[in-house]
User: Fold this.
Amino acid sequence: MSEQHPEQTKHLFGKTYQGYDLPDGSYVPGAKYAPDPRTVWGWQLRGLQEGRNRDATFSWEGKRVLDLAGNNGYHGLRALREGAAAATLVEQSSDAAAKAAEIAKEWDLPLHVKRRDIENHPWDKHALEEPFDVIFAHQVLYHLARPIPLLRRACKALRHGGSICIHSRIAVHVHEKHWEWVPTLHTMEETLRYVGFSQVRFTGDARLLAALRRRNPPDERGQHKVMVVAHR
Assistant:
């Protein structure tokens, strides 16, 4: 299978929202409107590196990771490829979960796939005995009816010193109204601190982050996706 052209492989696995890598070195793009997970990976790695101990180099070696609503499991699989000890994908879509299992098989990696709704079904039952080191929650929060309880559950599922990586929408202006949860940069930071995280870092495009840090810019509107890495 790995010798197939990327477009043939994409057809074989079916269309996916999120792009993915294959062992032959090819990258299969996802939907045109989806963020490139390779870029997101780089941003979150920067945030993890800038954690509490700036003198230490972040490593995936031995880490236990959880990918919440992670589509085809790109981030969990890449963590395994880079030395993580265990990775779990929790995904509601049966189609996406099946694709994640197929891609994991292609890589011969032990991705643990759980098909369930992350808001209404348990994914953190054993977290007290075996807490996670890193949790991914990308393109997730603005789809949830109750994002704050889920963030609180995620914080409790992390070991002390563990981190959550969130790629989500941020509103430019505090007075903008959205049907979904799209906070300002300030509200996102305060929410993460409220649920139990002690350190919050934003990474990504520096000019965009500088603009978003200005409270209530008078002539700007809209929303942008940014990377947030918060440490417990």
